[in-house]
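Bug #77: duplicate submission created two jobs. Keeping one. Sequence:
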Amino acid sequence: MSFKNKFILKLIVGFTILVFLIRLLESNEKNIDRKELVQLEIELATDIKVIKGSRTSYYYKFWVKNYPVEFVVDSKSLRKKNNTVQTLKQGDSILILIKKNNLDILNEKSKRVRVFQIIKSDKEYLKID
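Kept job's structure:
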């Protein structure tokens, strides 16, 4: 086997392993224990926006008044995409569910925090699987 063929084979094997690991991590993220989540009451600093044409798995993003992080909703964690979430506007007070370990990074500007649920006035806008 020539050097070029060995290199191509190693590249294919490496890529396959990488794809497998990414899929494994994604499947682990779906199985969230409710005990790992905390509720946070926040006020929207921006409207909730749909991310269109993005290569990320995030479907919605928004920022809040009290924390500089970007909040995102992963499209894979939703039972269905709920267009009414886009009716949430700047200044609205909402409850969100995030992982407890994300509480430590809420004041870090360049961080992204995944949201698992959005509730406003007892109306559930997004819900985890």
